What does this fold into?
Amino acid sequence: MTDTPTLPTTQKPAREIVQRGLWFEEFDTDVVYRHRPGRTMTEADNVLFTTLTMNPQALHLDAEFSDQQSPFKARLMNSMHTLSTLVGLSVGQLTQGTLTANLGFTEIAFPRPVFHGDTIYAETTVAEKRPSASRPGEGVVTMRHVARNQDGLVVATATRSALVRCAPTAKPQP
It folds into this structure.
């Protein structure tokens, strides 16, 4: 015998919500999308990402060397890891299951370094959106991503253009 209550097989919930990103029509240009939770950047992240991408930069891997280099006197997080994390923090809220493809990145900047132990938080604004001229049922969304550290300081920015699906016109069959 089980103590766990179950719904009768004829009773269905009033509605279901499946986590997904936004359909093209749901993106708004007058909104700041704040992505939470943040991500604390670790030494393991830095070493793994740096070595997986075949980047031998001593500023990421060699504590003795990095500790002697001005102006930071510490190992820096790999900036490509920071960029990847910035975009990754936005996926669950904006593009999970609705993205067709990333079309490109522009205006990437790293105004401050990220160090082991820093936590970054992301936010996104939509710069523009337009229906695709060549792909019916999809649209191009241009997003401006910003990463801030635990002190609220901007550590990375990027503009991303993505091809996003429009909302389905027919409801799926059960």
Summary: The chain has four helices and five strands. The first helix runs from residue 43 to 52. The chain has a mean pLDDT of 92. The first strand starts at residue 32 and ends at 40.
